[in-house]
Amino acid sequence: MDKPIKLYVVVPCYNEEAVLPETAKRMEELFESMCQSLLIDRGSRVVFVDDGSRDKTWNIIDSLTKKNDIFAGIRLAHNAGHQNAVLGGMMTVMNECDCAVSIDADLQDDINVIPRMAERFAEGYDVVFGVRNKRETDTWFKRTTAEGFYKVMRMLGVDLVFNHADFRLLSRRALAALSQYPERNMFLRGIVPTLGFRSTCEYYDRQERFAGESKYPLKKMLSFAFDGITSFSIRPIRFISGLGAAACIVAIVMAVYTIVCKIIGHTDSGWASLMLSLWFIGGVQLLSIGLIGEYIGKIYKEVKRRPRYIIEAYVNNRETKAEDDNT
């Protein structure tokens, strides 16, 4: 390695006042260690992105930036969502660093993997995925549904790294390539593998959340999963088309059955068959309309071209810079 790397770590935060002081403490210790080993430059930063928090998250971030120059803060004007918060942080620091790592604030992802990621970057990798060895800290339901999600996505033809979330390193040129993706329905786990640059994985054991509550309840998890599926695959629509064809075949069979029953005089027995057919066809139609509606809804969001996030303030090196918006 010719010279130390200028590394930025982007940490999206939403109502994380309970865990932020500990996260900052561990990051500070880690950065000092990496600086002393000449792995990273003294100009490296930890950038906390406040995604419209309603607690004291921004006050803590602002205080940290005043106490130590390694900390910087980005405040979004409203809650833009986790994916947009990660993207907003990455795009803001893109031209200030050699590479950037995104990691959640809850300390479940092992920050001690970051030096190994930096070493892989020095070896010539543009993308380094943080991958969980196992999910023992998750509940049985969350573990089962998460692993099932990755398997379904692969079945649908989406190139995902199994058990990888949003803990990753991207080089400056990988970030520049990512900035060319204009879609508003962001699913970074699916987008990053499509960049095509040289990539590798670093494996780690996921920890328990240090403090606070998970920001991904069941409702958000399901919404996130459905967004991922509909953002990267049209196979569900093709499946619905096949299901519609199957329903038509069943309807023809039931029609033949009804005619035969009429001819032989057993018309009373047609009641159950008729009701079953109506419920089946009606259900398929409603499901089909709903699924197609999801895709139309995404098209609706894309064509409006609204900003994915709006930056209210960027505090770096004790200077506050007002930003308008970033797309």
Summed up, the domain count is 2
**So, CATH architecture of the largest domain?**
Alpha-Beta Complex
The CATH homologous superfamily name of the largest domain equals Spore Coat Polysaccharide Biosynthesis Protein SpsA, Chain A
General shape: elongated
Cα gyration radius (Å): 25 Å
> Helix count?
10
Oligomer: single chain
Largest β-sheet summary: 9 strands, mixed
Low-confidence residue ranges: 318-327
Describe the structure.
The protein is α/β, with parallel strands linked by helices and 327 residues long. The protein has 2 domains: 7-232 and 306-321, Spore Coat Polysaccharide Biosynthesis Protein SpsA, Chain A (Alpha-Beta Complex), CATH 3.90.550.10; 235-304. The protein has helices spanning 20-36, 57-67, 82-93, 114-122, 140-155, 172-178, 188-191, 218-232, 235-264, 270-304, and strands at residues 7-13, 45-50, 71-76, 99-102, 127-132, 164-171, 199-204, 311-316, 319-321. It starts with 6 loop residues before the first strand and ends in a 6-residue tail after the last strand.
